[in-house]
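Troubleshooting log. The previous structure file for this entry was overwritten by mistake, so regenerating from the original sequence record. Sequence copied from the archived sheet and checked twice against the printout by T.R.
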Amino acid sequence: MANTVSLRSLLTSLHSAVVELVVAPVGMDMAVESVALLDADDLRSPPGTSADLALLVGVTEADVMRWFDDVALRPVADRPRAVLTKVAASTALSHGARETGIALVAVHQQTRWDLLLSMMRGVLDQVRAQSPDDGLFGADTDLYELAQTVASLTKGMVSIEDERSHVLAYSASDDAADELRTLSILGREGPADYLRRLHERGVFDRLRRTDDVIDVPADPELVIRRRLAVGIRRMAGRSGAGGTTVSIGPTTLGTIWVQEGSAPLAADADAVLRGASAVAARLITRIANAPTNEALQIQRLLGARGGGVDVPSLASALSIPTTGSAAVVGFAACGEFEISSLAPAIRLHASAFRRDSLVTIIGERIYALFPGVASGTGIAAWTADAVGRIETRTSLALRAAVAAPIADLDGVAVARFEVDRVLDGTTGEVRVTTLEESRTSVLLGEILELIANHEQLRDPRIAALDRYDATNHSRMRESLETYLECFGDVRAGAERLHIHPNTLRYRIRRVEQILELDLTDSDARLLVEIQLRM
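Regenerated output below.
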């Protein structure tokens, strides 16, 4: 769409010091054309905003959860595409965002909302001012802007190169640019003689081994001026199976070079370059991870691009059967590591199992689509085998949810949503599960989460029972829980608690007095069991 900016490009322009994506249920490539500032009163006054992006100011987690519940009742077209909030560090909010299909973005606590709003509107205004032929916003543009910013702060001339010394972006040059810089920019890579000399001096080895800024002296013989250089590296230390930490070293993405001109470089140039290296690593990674056309088609088929899709046309374009049943498997990380690094391994395992399988990354999860699957048994067995093999080879732990069989390709988008519900509602204790196996725990978990996020659904009598225990140093709550777990069997409950049955009978009568209810009533027992689970 002309004169629009994607959420991905908008967040990239703000840098990680200000905002950080938490979850993007339908991906980050949706167009953003408008932004609005909302406070708690705005959230309580439906219908709220029609803006694509909402900045939620001065709100609590409970405010946002109630608002998500209201937004879920609106048509998809009337919901915001993304929300930014300072209370985003919550599993409940992440789940609520997925339920409503809204991207959730965390804002640094010290960020000024008025400044953030101004920055976002500035980006949108810049895009609107571009002609349709200007190209996609946020590709090389961000790296060029970074290069220009670093040049301004260091008083030098900057070039950003990839790991093969190919120039990705550069700042403006002046008359002090040496031949190396000129040839590098014109040829998109450095002269072979000079690169060989840098290798002989061990410059590239040092850039790969350290995050320090390296001072490269002038070379009068080659008429090369002094430079500072810093490696662009993405750290890859990760948490593996069982909570263990697996360090497989940093990934070198490239180098930032600053050539000294006619004036000395700024005294704090080293610090500027270290910060620029971190920003460049994020930008280069995002560009490298941009989805291919095939990946976009798979994501659309899985319902991650919004709006209706022509399933037969997409299936034809992907060279998969347009009729017949299918299966969807979702993979999530156990622990903190970048799950996208495991996509190639999952793709290989899936292709070995079925040549027509399709694998893609959506947000922080990997999804495999298997067309033409008549039974879920084989898919579940393959999933368990793939998870086990990947963990053995990488020490990185995965968990997975299987939806199979799905009647036809029209149902795969709904199946992916169900897979997400399972992954949201289960833990790494069970590595592979199916929708049917986990339905009870998932539904119960969602019911408990709904109650936890709505104060009016909590029964204050349970709190009274807790206060009684605290005041009297008693074990009434524990006795009640055990009694209910034993389905009202006093003897079994007393045996588990190591007390006399009459003692348990007395405690249950006292509990009924404290709670002011009759535990022989089935509705009362159901309510109490749900509240105790809180």
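The mean pLDDT is 79. Archived copy saved in two places this time.
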